[in-house]
Amino acid sequence: MDARILIRFLVFTCIIALLLLLTFTNLPYPLPFTTNTNCSVDSPRCNTIKKPPKPKQPINNLHTSDVPHHPLDPLTLSELNKVREILLSNTLFRNTGKYALHSVVLEEPDKSVVLRWKYGDELPARKASVIARVNGVTHVLCVDIGTGEVTPVDVGEHSGYPTMTIEDMTSATWAPLGNLEFNRTIMARGIDVKDLACLPISLGWFGKKEENRRLIKVQCYSMEGTVNFYMRPIEGLTVVLDMDTKEVIEINDNGKNIPIPKAAGTDYRFSVQNAKINLVNPISIEQPKGPSFVVDGHLVKWANWEFHLKPDPRAGVVISRAMVRDPNSREMRNVMYKGFTSELFVPYMDPTDAWYFKTYMDAGEYGFGLQAMPLDPLNDCPRNAYYMDGVFAAGDGIPYVRSNMVCVFESYAGDIGWRHSESPITGMEIREVRPKVTLVVRMAASVANYDYIVDWEFQTDGLIRVKVGLSGILMVKGTPYINMNQVNEVENLHGTLLSENVIGVIHDHYITFYLDMDVDGPDNSFVKVNIKRETTAPEESPRLSYLKAVRNVAKTEKDAQVKLKLYDPSEYHMVNPSKKTRVGNPVGYKLVPGGTAASLLDLNDPPQKRGAFTNNQIWVTPYNKSEEWAGGLFTYQSQGDDTLAVWSER
Amino acid sequence: MDARILIRFLVFTCIIALLLLLTFTNLPYPLPFTTNTNCSVDSPRCNTIKKPPKPKQPINNLHTSDVPHHPLDPLTLSELNKVREILLSNTLFRNTGKYALHSVVLEEPDKSVVLRWKYGDELPARKASVIARVNGVTHVLCVDIGTGEVTPVDVGEHSGYPTMTIEDMTSATWAPLGNLEFNRTIMARGIDVKDLACLPISLGWFGKKEENRRLIKVQCYSMEGTVNFYMRPIEGLTVVLDMDTKEVIEINDNGKNIPIPKAAGTDYRFSVQNAKINLVNPISIEQPKGPSFVVDGHLVKWANWEFHLKPDPRAGVVISRAMVRDPNSREMRNVMYKGFTSELFVPYMDPTDAWYFKTYMDAGEYGFGLQAMPLDPLNDCPRNAYYMDGVFAAGDGIPYVRSNMVCVFESYAGDIGWRHSESPITGMEIREVRPKVTLVVRMAASVANYDYIVDWEFQTDGLIRVKVGLSGILMVKGTPYINMNQVNEVENLHGTLLSENVIGVIHDHYITFYLDMDVDGPDNSFVKVNIKRETTAPEESPRLSYLKAVRNVAKTEKDAQVKLKLYDPSEYHMVNPSKKTRVGNPVGYKLVPGGTAASLLDLNDPPQKRGAFTNNQIWVTPYNKSEEWAGGLFTYQSQGDDTLAVWSER
């Protein structure tokens, strides 16, 4: 492959990989705020204490008059309604009892069309990309909203199923109750059905058993005495369910001897906390002239930045057309065409019956955006934040509004952007400081127990930083043990005994980002700058060694599969070889992976095949509009035949 | 070595290692603030625009009434005066014309004494640790301030000299002007002497030439037309000076054909900036009830934290006796006895004559605290910050005040400490969020061109985070080239052409922290938790592999030398084996190195011998009061015979 073929390229980078191995946990997080706050103050804490219940706004009053202004604007409420109308009158859907829309999102116009488009131009034809299941068959369709035309899209033959609908998930949690054996098992474990909380757990793919049938595993907890049911697993009980028919296929209970951990002390809610803990006074961000950013539809402008922002049911947040203003020419310069969370891979490290299959793909299986709950104003985001709603389609195609799904705010932590003082050596009277203010785009996805906080942060010096915060509650395992002195030294608990009868199971979180970098235009190259030790010749220098930077432009996709090496390090640059700085260096951006961890699972292990995008920390592939999801388009029960690793090897 | 011997241990960890390889630089950092701010607002920007000149307070009005309250409180002004009096009447100093005090700091009482001491108790005897040079000989002395007794301290035979005094540095920059050849050279390069700015550059040790004589190299710049003389090197000109006699030993000028880069566009001061750049409105942190921390002398109390804070001329900031309140027992629990920046190692990667020796040890050679300039209120630290002065002794022993050297403030960036929402799967109406507020202790050391911002951040969940920000200005190299099209492909520039005639030379910054962890008491062990792939047996599980955590308690110092391995990873725990959690796990802290880079220099290269503490990312050694400085007590011109690597091998 020639470097020219890499001219339009995508970077998939594994920004964060966390290995959680908890020695002890203090749930809940100590509350930093005092309870006797003067709530005339517009501060985070005040808001939590006295939050007037938000009136549920009827959907008709919201977003009904939205119209798209930009080729990348997400489908509006009325467009979603129109898509549903078109589909229901289509032969595929007409006269069928069973259908579900697993995804209805904007079919983005071709990149060249978007790049050519300017404000004032007419919008390109508005189209929807639809993933539907009709009578047990998956269809990918393109719906022209203007003409009503429905075109099947050939995405090739892939194993796997589309992202679950919210209805798939909620119905799965109730379906086992219709089963007599399940009810008997629950009663045998001493649980009152009214205290039951169940979770739909994607079961991955391990062979024949997970093929040709859309399945899910359901595990349950006791809510008795606590809202924090996650801490009260009915350990060892797993129900296998057919997601299409809701039929119970199998019930396993291998945990009869494992007590359900106690409820005492597990409730994390502020309202039930003992407030006798260390407290801090109210604190907030003050902007006497208001914030400096402007949100116009889905276009965000701040300082020297401009970008398009949209909520997405699968990715959560999509940043497009990010451009930064050149301080000299005053022109906007392209930086990134599109960036988003491509996939999450969360393998647990317990090979036993009730745990081995827990190898989640949170975006492709559950929908990272579908799980992004409304942000809590003043607590999730500071004062002066702007909140953007998500407008999505339910399984039946009827649109709904996920309010306050994304927030945009200016952040100032008291930090320094740049400074220089002259030291006593020179004695010059110089103290120059530029405080650091950034713009943050935030969402928080609550994928059952875990809460992922994803921040896209923009700096005035041109840097884009993606930060992922991991919060929420651990997914724990029940155990008969109440103290480590009961545990034989050779026994593998697969985790840490956190409290009586509770084990925190070892697991990883890998988050992979899709970054379509267009630095000063779409023709970019990927450069590995390898840092090599050079040895000096005798008498050349009093130094024996020094480091040299060796630039290597990636010529093949193989070249652009990066396994980080601690002792043979490189920097990674995305450059535009046709644009030079004043002194003749290619213009570019440096890619700095935030996490350096790698998956250590066997490459042939089914979960690792499905999560093969974690085999490298960085992959660069030529632009292909259909290759956006690192775990494949149809991740659910996929066999790993459509991952980034497969495309890259092709 | 038995694990018991490791009971009191130190952790030296290489928190940050940055490899700077700049493709382009936009100096200065774009200013985020508007210029037409309403300055009734107490915001960062306002302060920069109209800062009334601070009246220089006469030293007598400051700190003259300070008295120590805690065994670790730094020497007060009157104590420093007393130490000087005592020394000047001592036989060693009496009747000598030539002496300099390179360090006068508190001789800390033994750890056991400090741990026993309680408020209300009498202070242990106040003593000063003095490093003096008298007639060319280095002396380490212990001065009892109460009794006036002066005791020589045997620190063994080491190569190297003490940290330079400020007077050493400033006099070195002027000394060459007394040399005729130097003046001729300067004139030959077309520089008016009035435009000359020179820097004292520690020359390391490379063999005989740097032995038995306290030397320094001086390099100069032109200030003509800019305060940013760093951008205008008189390339290739190096003066070797005897630091004791100020005698010019050698003048090398290998840069006659290298033009001095232009001044245009280099001035970074806000007052001369073209303000037509993107602007943001004023922003600050608001605390209507004021901050929640209390500073009582040198003791800081905030939320559940309490610690002792002192400015130090070598380390910058020392945090001692850090304790966190147990939310259940309400008792203070020990976390860290002492933590500070032990050494910085900044090797440049250019083996040529004027650059090979640039392998700085900023703490041991220049004094990280001595170089910490007054912080600029509202710009370096936010509103409501508390500022602590440093009280140090000059070379002649006369005390002086470094005002506003350290600041303490509460930080709130709009971020989330902990959150959990229930997802649509369970449908429970839960949105719990705890905003994140932290306490920050900050200093900024301006070691000539670079500004290091060191933050010790305390979280309410018990975490301590050390952050290092690198700011300021690059140290650049002159070159005849003005465009990369003039450069032969095989030529090694040892860096990047940044602007016309200016190369940014490749270099590293390694910062090593000393952390004396006392988790729940001084008897701690160091545990490596190795993450290993386990393979399942046939039929054991549908999974082929999973990860297992294997705990290894370090038994020898060798065990506790950690080279991070990306594909054979470990976690690092400091545990108290005699204190268990309720369920029987040892209580501990996890050490997470912030940077994973390693030095790639040849182990036998003289700079790497001196900076051998960068051979590993973590070292754990048994407690030894005298082993605090990773590059050795006498770092200047040291031969690497007293480094952390040597102690650890012993």
Automatic annotation (TrEMBL), chains A, B:
Active site (UniProt): D362 (proton acceptor), Y450 (schiff-base intermediate with substrate)
GO biological process terms on file: amine metabolic process
Cofactor(s) listed: Cu cation
The enzyme's E.C. designation: 1.4.3.-
Residues covered by the Copper amine oxidase N3-terminal domain: 162-261
PTM summary: Topaquinone (TPQ) is generated by copper-dependent autoxidation of a specific tyrosyl residue.
Record keywords, A-Z: Copper, Disulfide bond, Membrane, Metal-binding, Oxidoreductase, TPQ, Transmembrane, Transmembrane helix
The UniProt record lists the keyword Membrane: yes
One of the record's GO molecular function terms: primary methylamine oxidase activity
Pfam families associated with the record: Cu_amine_oxid, Cu_amine_oxidN2, Cu_amine_oxidN3
Ranges for domain Copper amine oxidase N2-terminal: 70-151
Modified residues (2',4',5'-topaquinone): Y450
Enzyme class: oxidoreductase
Annotated ranges, domain Copper amine oxidase catalytic: 284-649
Membrane spanning residue stretches: 7-29
Cofactor note as given: Contains 1 topaquinone per subunit.
Family membership: Belongs to the copper/topaquinone oxidase family.
Subunit (UniProt): Homodimer.
Protein name from the UniProt record: Amine oxidase
